[in-house]
Amino acid sequence: MSETLKIDPYGFREYDARWVFEKDINEPGITNLGKGLGTQIKKHTKKENPRVIVGHDYRSYSEKIKSALKKGLISTGCLIEDVGLSLSPMVYFAQFNLDADAVAMVTASHNENGWTGVKMGIKKGLTHAPEEMNELKEITLSQNFSEGKGNQKQIKNFDKIYKDDLINKNKINKKIKAVVACGNGTAGIFAPDILRGIGCEVIELDCDLDWNFPKYNPNPEDLEMLHAIAKSVKDNKADIGFGFDGDGDRVGVIDDEGNEIFSDKIGLLIARNLSNLHKKSKFIVDVKSTGLYSTDEVLNQNQCETLYWKTGHSHIKRKVHNEKALAGFEKSGHFFFNQPLGYGYDDGINSAIQVCHLLNNQNKKMSEIIKDLPITYQSPTMAPFCSDEEKYSVVNQMVNEFKKLKEEKIKIDNQEIKEIITVNGVRFSFEDGSWGLIRASSNKPSLVIVTESPTSDERKLNIFKFIDKTLKKTGKIGEYDQKI
């Protein structure tokens, strides 16, 4: 008896697809996703047999899911080029290197075990945005599939081509001692080799592949992972610590004193370093990022411009591409480098390499370089539960609420709201540069809350308390994953 098809429509997220395997989607569901994606690729490329790069991350069930996905793609006429165990950026790179028509990477990134998903894209260097995701959802759920004769082949040792590409362009001459932490995720077989290759002395931390993730999820925003890196940096007197997520497209950074540097601050330091060489450049940052970009004296001196845009790797990537920006930085650790530094997609290892260049160019320790930036007090990214069905309406309510507070000049912690950005949820800023953000998470049933103040820790906390109180009134908010 064939298995009944199972595919939860909520798995089609803003810019990728994610489900709990077996509970929300099963193998026939994955195969239908492949048929939907194959149909969509043919429509956009206008090719009968488009070439699709496929890879998978190191989870116990990812190969099984990849097989089911390939089955669907092949049935529509796609020619599969399977690069095997991969990082998401390696699959993106393969599309350029092999000049293919599309990509499909089986990964749930840093989500807990049990989750699976696919990151996909057609135009080189870009992944699906909401329009493409909606179209894919429509094709897949209506089962309006194209048919054709496809096939598949394995591309052997592609990992070496990807590693060499990054190594050969990025040699450094300063001996940098780096802790490289991979949380037992797929980056463990890539990051240490590449960073050694450019000239770093590497101390490996949890780089053995283990799909049970015995210590913690490979997630550079996870405090447990960051604390483990900090301890290793101090124990080994290292210059820098890097933490990579499960599919290698994000990095977290710890300085030589064991302090976490939020990714938006790292982005600002990299932007400063790049702006000296690339004057009049444009940078894109997401709405969760520090307010310092808009006031930074180095960027201003070098006549650079920064735009705040929607959070999400697909949104920032697209904006970097459309604006022809030099780079884009996301608070979650996704960094995007356009030519001549990269191909526009997010690669955590290339991001770590840019941090190495920063250290290579300055005769200072990382802790000293970070002290060149004005101090701000930043909250971590906090996620209170809010169901997928309700999260967007709750955010719309918040947008209206804060617009009203601004219009009526209501003070929050003794200051009026000066500016509101609504490209993604609501980001409200005050005279002193403090700000708060409320948006819907694009891949989990939760909201995302961030606050920052250049004035004081207390002010950062007061803004959060105000947000929390306002959200609680809706009656639609549950537990937080972490709280200040």
Compact summary:
By secondary structure, this protein is α/β, with parallel strands linked by helices. 36% of the residues lie in helices and 20% in strands.
Compute the separation of the termini in Å.
52 Å
Radius of gyration from CA coordinates:
22 Å
Please count the helical segments. 14
Low-confidence stretches: none
Can you put this structure into words, describing what you see?
By secondary structure, the protein is an alpha/beta fold. The protein has four domains: about 10-155, 3-Layer(aba) Sandwich (Alpha-D-Glucose-1,6-Bisphosphate, Chain A, domain 3); about 160-260, Alpha-D-Glucose-1,6-Bisphosphate, Chain A, domain 3 (3-Layer(aba) Sandwich); about 260-370, Alpha-D-Glucose-1,6-Bisphosphate, subunit A, domain 3 (Alpha-D-Glucose-1,6-Bisphosphate, Chain A, domain 3, 3-Layer(aba) Sandwich), CATH 3.40.120; about 375-470, Alpha-D-phosphohexomutase, C-terminal domain (TATA-Binding Protein). About 35% of the residues lie in helices and about 20% in strands. It is built from 14 helices and 20 strands. It has helices at about 25-45, 60-75, 90-95, 130-140, 160-170, 190-200, 225-235, 265-275, 295-300, 315-320, 350-360, 365-370, 390-405, 455-470; strands spanning about 15-20, 50-55, 80-85, 100-105, 115-120, 150-155, 175-180, 200-205, 240-245, 250-255, 260, 280-285, 305-310, 325-330, 335, 375-380, 415-420, 425-430, 435-440, 445-455. About 55% of the residues are buried.
